[in-house]
Specification:
The structure holds 2 protein chains of 2 kinds. Chain A is mainly α. Chain A has 14 helices and 2 strands. The chains are: A mainly alpha, B alpha/beta.
Chain lengths: 334, 531
Amino acid sequence: MSTTVDRPDQATARTSSALKSTIQRHGWTLGLVGILVVLLVVTRLIQPTYGAAGVQGLAVSVLPLAFAAVAQAIAVIARGIDLSVGSMMALTSVISASLMDERSEGFAVLVVIGVLLLGCVLGAVNGSLIVVTRVPDIVVTLAMLFVWAGCALLVLGTPGGGSAEWLRGLTGGSILSEWIPKAALLLLVIVGVIWIPIRRSRLGLSLYAIGSDPLAAYRSGVSVTRTKILAYTLTGLFSAFAGLTLTATTGIGTPVPGPYTLLSVAAVVLGGVSLAGGRGGVFGPIVAVVILSLLRTDMTFLNVNTNLATVAQGLILVGVVMVGSLLQLRKREP
Amino acid sequence: MTASTNGYLLEASDVSKRYGAVVALKSASLRVRPGEAHALMGANGAGKSTLVKVLTGAVRPDGGTITVRGKERTAHSPAEARRGGLVSVYQEPALIPDLDISSNLRLTETPLEPFRDWVRQLGLGKLDISRMARDLPLATLRIIDLARALAIRPDVLMLDEITAALPANLTERVLEVVASQRGGEGSIIFISHRMTEIASVCDRATVLREGATVGVVDVSADSADRIVELMLGEAVGEMPERTERSVQAAEQGEVPRLEVRSLGSSGRLRDVTFDIRAGEVVGLVALEGQGQDELFDILAGSEHATAGEVLVDGRPVSFRHPADAIRAGIVFVPADRAEALLMQRSVRENIALPFSAPISGWGPIWSRKEKPKVDKAIDTLQIDTRAQKEVRLLSGGNQQKVTIARWVAGGVQTMLCFDPTRGIDIRTKHQVYLLLRDLAEAGAAVLLYTSELSEIQLACDRAIVIFGGEVVAEIAASEADEATLLRAAHNLRSDAPLPEEVVAAAVAAEEDVEAAGEEPAPSKPGEAGDL
């Protein structure tokens, strides 16, 4: 970022320090990628048959949660938290599944666009309620968790509906090489196309600004209320992506999905986003989701009792965050 | 450049604002001419900050009009005020800690070249704008905030206590820049408690008292008395003559209350030795970042020393927690009131906390026993208790008094005060000095760090000066005039001039955590600094 404002005579001298600071800034995400690579190697060791197919399965299974983690990350960066992510996923999932069921492929395109817009609306409602009522984020989104969950059950009482073929095709299988799952590519393209431009715009700066220090942001001329509504709108949008991919990967709409909300918070924390706001990004949480899922897979391979695996997952979460924070503290003190 | 017909650039008339039962502004007026530096003065609670908030659009007034260049205008947010040409620099820099400086500049759409020019003029030679705001020292952030405001050439620039806690050399640069803006197109509204600064850079001063404008004074060398008179609404009482008795008595006292022997702490503190006797107020003088923060943290039990020892009443002590220090009779009044107070709780609870909740137990608190003590403390300190339900509603000066009162109520043996009068008005300051003297009279030992050098003679018996983590001078109060102290703070002999290099090095040392332990090398003497 600094390169855009450097003067030519300083640019070369700055390049190396800019590189260093980039590495420093993304240190957490890079560390997570390291852990992920180690985990993949370990997986291969304990289950020699784990290969391209395994990676594909992994990508498909984490896709909804990865979008949910991105959604949560945006809310948390803006010093909020959205407990209704899972319910918004459910609502968008059942609406898309019931509308696409036994309809034309072309109609499904309209459904997808409509559902994404609906996600934006749901998020905007969350954000506006927080801003207008001045009730804390956690309380408003807790309330909306029930509202959206109830709506989802109204739409579809039991799992059902269907998904368009092209939508299922987008998430299943691989592209170019058998090692590149379509699901992973889809995730990176969607997040990249939406998030990276925002991150670099004034909106992105404002998101981090209100998360980091709302008063300073206000005094710097940022509209804290508008930014907050937009943050939740983005959270809603990515929750809708999560709901759509839930429908696409399972083929049906699920009115009561898994514990996505809390898992998304876990992924955000593990992904290096500060719950105090203002710090972190969306790619760390995505890697964290993959790590959490792969850990479970490994424990299944090792025949660990699933309940025990859940316990282990929690302990690992605390451990990683603690060690990571210690490393960061160490770095700051000379 | 066209001023309005009446010749004022900014005109606020009869502005009023009330918060529930509390009237913050009754009828405040402020008229600023183009090209002038205009001081806004008033004791704490006089309504200064509310007026500033109204002007910057952070607070909507209940009544009154604000016109800019003769056109009526109401800003609803700082962003709007900014577009209208009215920019503020606050006491706490409005920089986003988690963004680097260049992103912070983009956030406010600040042009880069003028910004760099101002940074240079303000005396921050090299500034890496790819650094995170949170990694920079407060003084640097203030300068950046000011440069950012100047870079967009505002019509009216509002500076709120801009020089508070700035090192002396940066203060000088800031005042120079403010002075250089006079006579130009824009105006400056300058808020400061430091009379000398007002006298040196301002043309006129508007004085507020109890929410109303009580006078506009043309600033000259001898207008300070008039301003203070207006602020207080009565003639200022001189500080009572200090009795030398307590000190003399202390001289003969056998064991000092607090002894510090060769205290060291990784890098910042190297070798600090001094003692304080019961009945003494000792002033501590230092430029920013010379180890005073670490010293206070160690004495208050929130940090560990790596070398040396601390003795209380002749017995060596070692603190693992602030509770240990409090048990040993050492209490700490930090500069940041927010660090000391439970902002959402009542005045009563805040004062009662240290003595009604003995650290050893979880037992019940008897409000009957607590009440007389608390009442006495509130009374002694003349704390304004109109808004006593929550401490955060009090004015800064009253909050500061609560931080001191809570220790007075329990009886105090050794008090450490870190810049307790920062940003509070002159009357409250005098009350704080008197209180410290009273505490000493009653047999307490007081260590007072202050960034305002004139306080040493007002409140202390003697001063010790720290530079580069070492005690470099000890000066009796009678000789501790500001010039002597400032020279000592720069580690110069009393007759030596003030070299720019030393100042720059001291600031660099403060900026650079790694270099913290190294003493800035005093090189060849440059032009004489003034004070």
